[in-house]
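Much of what follows relies on a compact textual record of a protein's fold. The record below shows the convention in full:
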Amino acid sequence: MRYKVMRLLCFFDLPVETPQEKKEYRIFHKNLILEGFIMLQYSVYMRTCPNRDYVSRISKRIEQIAPKQGHIRLLMTTEKQYEDMKIIIGKKSNTESIVGSERFIKL
């Protein structure tokens, strides 16, 4: 398999009205971070992946930790497509700048 860096974006909108929904949100959010995702914007998280097969494995794990209610979407893009994203207002976060196209944060 050819090495081709991909970005996996996770967009979610989860209910947080009842104590149970709040608990499920916290568990999902915690697990998303444990999977290596970083916040791009509120309820939009991003992860760098080495190839499409890895994206498939991460996607399956996200399906397993997803709460029963709400909306969760995953979008896979190539590194080139991600870098072509136009920022209209604001700038890249410090974390996003540090990570770049690397899988691990170098401090």
